[in-house]
TrEMBL record, chain B:
Coiled coil ranges: none
Record-linked InterPro entries: AAA+_ATPase, ABC_carbohydrate_import_ATPase, ABC_transporter-like_ATP-bd, ABC_transporter-like_CS, P-loop_NTPase
PROSITE patterns: ABC_TRANSPORTER_1, ABC_TRANSPORTER_2
Residues covered by the ABC transporter domain: 8-243, 244-495
Entry keyword set: ATP-binding, Nucleotide-binding
GO molecular function, one term: ATP hydrolysis activity
Domain of life: Bacteria
Protein name: Sugar ABC transporter ATP-binding protein
Amino acid sequence: MMEIFDILLQASFWAAVLRIASPLIFATMGELICERAGVLNLGIEGIMVIGAFTGWIAVYAGLPLWWGVGAALLAGMAFGLLHGVLVVPFGLSQHVVGLGITLLATATASFAYRLILPEVTSPPKIEPFQPLGLFGPILGAQTALTYAAFGVVAVVAYVLYRTPLGLALRACGDNPAAVAAQGLSVTGLRLGAVMVGSGLMAVGGAFLTLSAFSSFFFEMVNGRGWICIALVVFGGWGPGKALLGAMLFAGFDALQVRLQQTGIGEILPYQLFLALPYILSILALILMSRRAQVPGALMIPFRKGER
Amino acid sequence: MQAQEVVLRLTGITKRFGPVLANDGIDLALHRGEVVALLGENGAGKTTLMNILFGQYRADAGDTQAFGAALPPGQPRAALMAGIGMVHQHFTQCGALTVLENIMLGRESLWQTRLGRAKARARLAQLMADFGLTVDPDARVGDLSVGERQRVEILKALYGEARVLILDEPTAVLTPQEAEALFVTLRRLVAQGLSVLFISHKLGEVMALADRCVVLRHGRVAGAVRVAETNPAALAAMMVGGDLPGQAVPPGRPGVVLLSLRNVGGTGVDLDLRAGTITGLAGVSGNGQAALADLISGLARPLAGQMTLGGQAVPADWSPRRAVQAGVGRIPEDRHRQGVVGDFTLAENAVLERYGEAGFARGPFLRRGAIRDFAAGLIGKYDVRGGGPETAARGLSGGNMQKVILGRVLEAGPKIILANQPVRGLDVGAIAYVQSQLIAARDQGAAVLLISEDLNEVLDLSDVVHVISKGRLSPGFARGEKTVAELGLWMAGEGFDHAA
């Protein structure tokens, strides 16, 4: 147990928690926006891959880093538009479309990669975002994108609970008929939510290439998208608690890496440590999601004139 | 009173659906500070008229004016913008949001950077004080009672600056106490200069609340009277028309009792269904018809009392399957939800109750060909239009769907037919067809139980009429034994007290 306390006292541990949490925060906020408007977006995993790739390839091509983030955002919104059109006006199954988008986006990234870099054996590196060095060893180790991630949580929370747009979005996720009865467009609101949400997911992916690592690998998203879907549930569809969930998951992840190097790591197999954040997340999910308020119209397509 | 400002005027509204004239030259005027009841049976044209006012349909002729200005036809927002608020029977609310949020929804520009919560809260508090409507603005709507949710709906309309309030069957979902509270509220609104138009088929509440009453029958204004100068019996007569019931249909030849209920549910429900007769069950919906229908169709088992079929007590494992096997044919109240499986083909729906029988199955396998042939025969015989055996049932119109159900029931050669609202929502042609088939089945010896809210329909078809009210069943009245007005009193629950 002493080892754990030692780790918790290290500044580098807390710096790692913030770094690991950042992409999860972006993508979780993206998924949360979609789901609050009533659309489950299972395209998240693939959209994160396309975001990671687009951001990286844009910067590799010579664009500034922030333009890379912008490129990822646009790529995410484009896939969000496709997902949204299939799911909102056409009312197709959100599960099937979401998984299809994940396959399509992942394959598109792979295809474009081979097209642009046919010869290379290992992906070229770029110069990523650098730590800002402000406010001490923990915050100072973070890049501007991590600050942006926390900024996004504040903005999402504000928009959802403090603006007429957020009210309309939440109403869309609960009972779209009530929104339509006020003369608002459910289709427009849901489509917009899916596009913006998908854009945020892609930025979460781009964090991996533009801030965490300096290159692109196909396995780098590695199930983070699915974790984010669980984090939305964990957070009870609220941005604040979802942020907490992302931090908790990142904390377990940072902890298990460090535990492997302690005395405990010599006794137990390392696979057990790798599994630790997932096991603890599932436990937390079970405990937290019992009281969760699921959006009433989640996954239910809205067609005018039907009850 | 007549000199009062007219806030809403409908002139010569006419709307035709194919051969059916749903609204025929309807005139209606609502004055400031007045409560007008729009009274009529189901299918009299009330809903069509409201849909025209709110721009869902365009009238073929006639025009609508609100506060002296013409409303453009076919624009749902126009009436709302003109200050006409509608409280639907089915509320359009978000259960997860608070009362305040529900009321604010859509009231501010979406691109405004801040929700004006404090201002809205103050305005809502003012409205609640002005009109004596209290709801906790921070309560989740999903936690409220139906009566409170209706108050939220009224507040929503008032918040939208409605000066005319239209309520569609507002008491249908309320307890009597809640209904009484609603009446108090509405009187207060009217005292403050608003106008109320409420749609109803309940005579009692029209008498209690309205200043004037406009009666619709078969799409026409059958009469417009001051409530102070009329009585429930006169209104009922106006609503169902002066035409003598039961002349067109020759009487049945009563045979043996096929189904008998004795004091089921412990509320003194005694009912005998005889072969070769149509037994009508009149009453306002929600007075126990559903429980009775569930019992006969096998969805529920008798809790008390006795239920016998052909002289034998029903088996302890009484179920829908047992009911079908015992020869009970069922035309359910909600044909979309309980009658057909929308995504199944007509062929599959046609054998839904009998797919296990030898004609349609061989061991565990369906005989597809036989099922298709059966369905094709049914489609021809019962004149189902709009699809063949392989068409999904979802695609059919209500009338044709009902013909499929009717065919399924009658082809099984039932001894007892439970027809629950068999013509609700159908057009005139389909109504006549379904009714004639029920009469034909009766003449072949079936015992038919006809449950309907439409008193006219019950009187036209039935050899014996019972009235159901608050779970109690009146004695059976022979054809012509009671007038419409007398039955109306039984429907309002009055006859029971005299009888007891």
